[in-house]
Amino acid sequence: MLDKNGIAKRIAQEVKNGFYVNLGIGIPTLVANFVRDDIEVEFQSENGILGMGAFPFEGEEDADLINAGKQTITALPGASYFDSATSFGMIRGKHVDLTILGAMEVAENGDIANWKIPGKMVKGMGGAMDLVASAENIIVAMMHTNKAGESKLLKKCSLPLTGVGCVTKIVTNLAVLEVIEEGFKLIERAPGVSVEEIQKATEGNLIIEGEIPEMEL
Amino acid sequence: MITKTVKNVQEALKGVENGMTFMLGGFGLCGIPENAIAELVKLNIKDITCISNNAGVDDFGLGLLLQKKQIKKMISSYVGENAEFERQMLSGELDVELTPQGTLAAKCQAAQQGFPAIYTPAGYGTEVALNKETRMFDGKMHVLEEAYKADFAFVKAWKGDTAGNLIFKGTARNFNPCMCGAAKITVAEVEELVPAGELDPNHIHIPGIFVQRIFKGAHFEKRIEQRTVRQK
Question: Which top EC class is given (chain A) (predicted)?
């Protein structure tokens, strides 16, 4: 079974040379730490930077330079700043190659819910609805089950939707799955996790074809 | 040459009234019009509708207006990090319209550029699209979103000149350029105000035509919301 860093490490393998990548808040942010040094990639933060770098050294924080999580960051050589309309133009216009974001629920048809728990948590969708509606390559990073142990890979989302039929791939603490017409296709198992365990933790239709390899991390 | 300079924030906010709709630039606390917000608190303008990506934190940014219950309605994409906001929203004191971030920017920009509405795929199939027109383009469903209508836009820039030309810094740019010229009156507060001719026209982000009033802010705290650092 993987921890959050393990999930991020596996997703980092999906980041290809020359990609522009948008990372959501939470586990997705960790992906940047695991991208191989020989891969050239630029991270986009939707508040208006391409070429986002690491956190600044202490004493070098700049109030005018933050990421979408409102954290102080740095800009790498070749970076650029732009306004919010331009930023979402990059996203809507499909210029961003890969979007990685967290989710509370994913349905077997690719629907995603990650912005609202009615009566409990109403913080807003931020840029998530724009990202999932336009990106063609969306990877969801999340735990396979919630804190109560219930599956987050469902037949149908129970929470208000963020987007419909948009998720293409999911990496959890247990498995890598692809969303295909018939449901969740199991691609890889996390180290030490059996197909049976994944089946038990998946409410939606799980498609298992042949031998399922273990992830190589 | 047309001069947009006003003396101070008091003069810049002349004409603001209870019940008006304001656009306010900024992302989190980054690039917010601090001086205009402080003056709105002082003037105790009530029943405000705010179009702003976020709602500040409890004791800074739009949180200051929330504390004094001056805001009637918030139009935002993300309103976390603010306990008073959550309390007012759950108790029904505050009307909240949550809008996808890119749609929010597009609705401001549409107002700036004279488009009555835009189509976007964001929010299709979700509660954001309820009671809105939808239409298919190239096999994909889109939602019709109307341009915002606002009385004042309050924006913050790094440098500006007396002609109203603006230059922004870093990610403090965010929604500010999209809101310039998107309201009846755009008020820009800047850290540095120079005579027209001193800024290189090649470097202007927003031409002065989109700005009606410009002033040098008396004070910028520029508070950092999440200070994250690494060790040397």
Answer: transferase
